[in-house]
Amino acid sequence: MPKRRILLLCSGCIQMIAIICYALLHDISQTILVSSWQDAYFFDVYRRVHRQVSGLVSESTCYAFLTGHLVDLLWFLSACLFFSFWCREAKYVILIFLAVASEFSQLIFPCLGTFDVLDLVLYGMTLILFLFLDIQI
Hints:
Elements: H1 3-25, H2 32-35, H3 41-58, H4 63-68, H5 70-86, H6 91-108, H7 117-133
Helix pairs in contact: 1-5, 5-6, 5-7, 6-7
């Protein structure tokens, strides 16, 4: 399989993992997207699994990282792989813009999340890793 397809496949898989982690680590039952499914059987299963995962994570020493930064880091890693697939020259400029814009938009629109400097640090570390490895197609 060509390297381009592997990068795109990895990007999609990491994004799916981020979505699943978000659903398991945060209560999504009140979100607009999910609120119409409240009566479905699988939603009861989700609530039970969410309670169990929340109980396990809340006892973890990594609780703040898992609930506050893991999904953001996975999202950014997925974006890095995706832009490695599509762009060669401008990918780091685009990624820096996405990182800064996503965090600062949370200052303007609190419904998007909580602004956190640690997220920017993690994004920067991810970019440094990508620069060091220089993932080229």
